[in-house]
Amino acid sequence: MTSLQQQLQTIREKSAEKLTPDVRAAIQQGFAELQESVVREKVLGVGDTAPPFSLPDTRGKCIVSDALLAEGPLVILFYRGKW
Asked: pTM value?
């Protein structure tokens, strides 16, 4: 059985094969810039506590983290794209 890291590496390699050299270079440059930026310092790590927040759910209803935490542990899932 392969590890998750190995599976992800295989996906990255197969995806990269489908891209033109220009697109691959742009992605690599963007990734490098993000790694060097201060944004990386602000990312929460495993076990970190997120600050209180409110966000719209998939139906536009405002969800408040403190209200959910009062009911128990909270798992956050972000969807990419438009609805």
From this structure: 0.44
How far is it, in rounded angstroms, from Cα 63 to Cα 57? 6
Q: What total of structural domains would you count in the chain?
A: 1
Q: Domain limits at 21?
A: 4-42
Give the residue, 49 or 66, on which the prediction is more confident: 66
Sign of CA dihedral 63, 65, 67, 72: positive
Residue 28 in domain: yes
3-state secondary structure 24-71: HHHHHHHHHHHHHCCHHHHCCCCCCCCCCCEEECCCCCEEEHHHHHCC
Rounded CA-CA distance 29/6 in Å is 23
- In a domain, residue 51? The reply is no
Q: Is residue 83 part of a domain?
A: no
